[in-house]
Amino acid sequence: MYELHYDETEQVIFQVDPNGKKTIIANDSPSKPLFSKEKTKAIYITPLEWECTGNLYLYDLKTGHELSLFKAEGDKQVPKFASWLDDDHVLAIIGYGMGTISVGGNVYSINIHSMEKEQLTDYPNEIQITRFTVEDDTLNLEGIKYIDDELNQFVPYQEKIALPKRVR
């Protein structure tokens, strides 16, 4: 099996192959890899910086193969946060990559086998989801809600929604 390691100081991800050889696979400010429950796959976003258009990757620890789960579409559809739902699905926050008001986005489910993407939330620009957690069949959403017309002032935003049965 391959291994993935994150070097926070250097802000790189490197793989270690079965023979012990180290190779950098992401050197442009990637997120820390998150491993599937079975520890055979990992996901990460690179680059993950303010106003950068990163991509969401899936890394197979059995084969050492990397696959793009979500490629940024210009600056309109950029992955900003991702987490495992189960060993077959990844949840990701996708939103605008540029602009001071776009700190988050909407939540999508991605099937890692079929590559099928499903949008789970559809908020207006005034609501920006920045984090989520999953408890049983509930998606706990956190973010901000802008309360003025200039989108300068905001309050914390939270909501709980049921995960669709086809995603669970």
From TrEMBL:
<dbReference type="InterPro" id="IPR028102">
    <property type="entry name" value="DUF4652"/>
</dbReference>
<dbReference type="Pfam" id="PF15525">
    <property type="entry name" value="DUF4652"/>
</dbReference>
<protein>
    <submittedName>
        <fullName>Uncharacterized protein</fullName>
    </submittedName>
</protein>
